[in-house]
Structures are given as C-alpha cells and as structure tokens.
Design brief:
The chain has 8 helices and no strands. It is an all-alpha fold.
Length: 149
Amino acid sequence: MSNTNETDAFSADLVSGLAAFDSKNFTMAYQLLAPLAAQGSAESLWRLGMMQMNGLGMVENQPLGFENFVHAAKQGHAFAHHMIAVAYMTGEGVEKDITKAIEWFEKAAKFGLPGAMYALGMLYEDGKEVTKDLEKTQYWYDQAAAVEA
C-alpha cells in the first residue's frame, strides 16, 4: 500500500470521526478516532479527551481524558492547552492547582484563544484563588476583545 492511500484513509477516518463527534454520535466518533489517536493524531486525542472527561458515549474517565489532552498539547493543539487549564482549575482528572491552571491558560492564550484570556481576566478579577489584580484583569480582557474584534 502506498503512503498516499494510507494518508487518504487516515484523512477520511478523521473527517468522518469529526463529523460523528460534531453530530453527537460519540460511539461512532470513538470507533473512528481511537485508532487515529493511537497513531498520535492531536485532533483525535483532544476529541477523545473531551469524550472521556465528560462521559460522552462512554463511561467518564477524567484522568485518561486529561492524559489525552496532554498528548495533544505536546503537539501544539490549542484547545488541549485550554482544557488542561480548565482541568487544573476545577480539579477534574487531575489534582486542582490554580497556579498550573494559570500557566496553561497563558499557554492557550498564546494561540489566540479568547476563552483562555477571559478565564485569566475572571480569575484575577475574582481574586478568590489568586491575588486580585485589576491591572492583569484589564490586560486579559483587552487581549480577548482584541482577538474577537
């Protein structure tokens, strides 16, 4: 089999897996994406992580979902960075650690994700788990607004 045929099959399975995920057919999405995730597909790893963290089409397994986010993030998947931050912030799948959450939200913000920027702004505005810092609050809200403009 040529590499072109393997690439075409990989792409077709990925497109089909993403379509199944987006249409909330999580059983089919898992069947199509799991083999691709095993081959290291960042998008597949992230989607499987989402299903595992939230029990979508399977029994919830937050630690495994977190692990898949980490594997996807190592490949530069922006939303995986964001979800690692959320996991650290909430303690889902990993021990809660607000310092690590902020580090990961900052990494996600470097990808231009306004959600990560807003999360940082809210954390600094709220001042419950980190020292209240209105300067950082404004900075992150401004960054998010600039991305969305």
